[in-house]
Amino acid sequence: MYQFNMRNRLKNVSPLRMVLLFLPILFISLSPFSTLHAEQRVINQSPRQGIAYVQGEHANTWPSIISQAAVVMDMDTGTIVYGKNPNVKHYPASITKIMTALLALKYGHLTDELTASKNAVDQPADKLYMVPGEKAQLQPLLYGMLLDSANDVAVEIAEHYGGSVSHFAQMMNQEAAALGATHTHFVNPNGLPNPNHTTTAYDMSLIARAAMQYPEFRKIVQTKYYNWKGTAWQAKLVNLNGMLFDYPGCIGLKTGFTSVAHETLVVAAKHHGDTFLAVLMDAPTDGEIRQDATSLLNYAFAHYQTKTVVKAGQVVGHLAADNQTTVPVVASDAVVATVPKGKDAPTYSENVRYALTATHLAKGSAVGKLSVYDTSGHLLATVPVKVATSWNASSLQAQGHYWPLSIPIAIVLTLIARVLRMMLAKRRMRRRDELEPTVPFANSFES
């Protein structure tokens, strides 16, 4: 059977054709005009023990709490502003269901129809008291699980999207690891006691922040009441998260309790454009954990705020175009930071460096990078920049600073020089062979 052999094919390619063959590949690999995806660059963080703390964080200045473990996160930046035993493992209880809901929304649709199994309906309360074979769409089931902490729903979701509880638990652990929750191990979807079912306050903050990226999840966890209309049981569900009723600006999330986990709580609130998320674990009573959460959130809102240094789409420079006009250059990503209140936010100098290898660019083409420095000259972030409209240059010169094109040019020239040397060496060998007399093969050996 014939097999394609690139080495053999290239043997017959002339050196000049080889240059022409690889030049486009070289320019494509060096080209800065790639498709950009909007992201967010976070600055003013000081990583410690795998946790992205805000610079200057001092937990000893915060209020004393009873809960054995807790973190407070700026939900917009992911920066941790407070931590108490953030990486110590605890039983999560029903805040486990945050991950269960996250996977249901990730892999399912709100109109999916689920069927309750005997295993699901046999789960202990809290539950929706469904009967085996009862069917319901995912959306009302999520309301039942996140407001009323229904254990039967959690198992029903696990069996539907995972095939079994054990396989769904594997999916939960894989998702946790992907989110950076490396101290987490789930064995069930509802948080019922199991010595191997543990997580940490920091890991739960990562999981909760990821879940809050789903608009439907946000909508459900801040809903106070929901009418459940099941086959065997109908009820007006009241959200078990008392912070929704007591704490101004609360936007969710979830409570938990078992005899071994004690009280657990994940709660988020928004004030004046700032959003903070608190995770608390292992408190004796519901009243005490809510008081702890209130104290931590109050302190966070009083002492920290989210600052946008550079907005995605913000004009950061201009390129000279034809007809004596200019085209705006915008930041592809945002640069954000969590900063202390009461202190002047750091000021940043911006420096755009362009990389231009074409005289025409489509709207949205990358043209360089924006470097963000602090006042001491330290580089804080590098953000791709792109043209806001199509661009036709009158020349390859534009306003601002430019990346040198000498590197790709030098590579190309080096390649051409090597090929030319190869061609010259081959020509010399050919001429030498033509000048040397031909010796019969038989006479090349002594008899």
TrEMBL record:
EC annotation from Swiss-Prot or TrEMBL: 3.4.16.4
Keyword Iron-sulfur (UniProt): no
Domain of life according to the entry: Bacteria
The keyword Repeat belongs to this UniProt entry's keyword annotation: no
Signal sequence, start to end: none
Pathway: Cell wall biogenesis; peptidoglycan biosynthesis
GO molecular function, one term: carboxypeptidase activity
Enzyme class, UniProt record, top EC level: hydrolase
Family: Belongs to the peptidase S11 family.
Protein purpose: Removes C-terminal D-alanyl residues from sugar-peptide cell wall precursors.
Protein name from the UniProt record: serine-type D-Ala-D-Ala carboxypeptidase
Organism name: Alicyclobacillus fodiniaquatilis
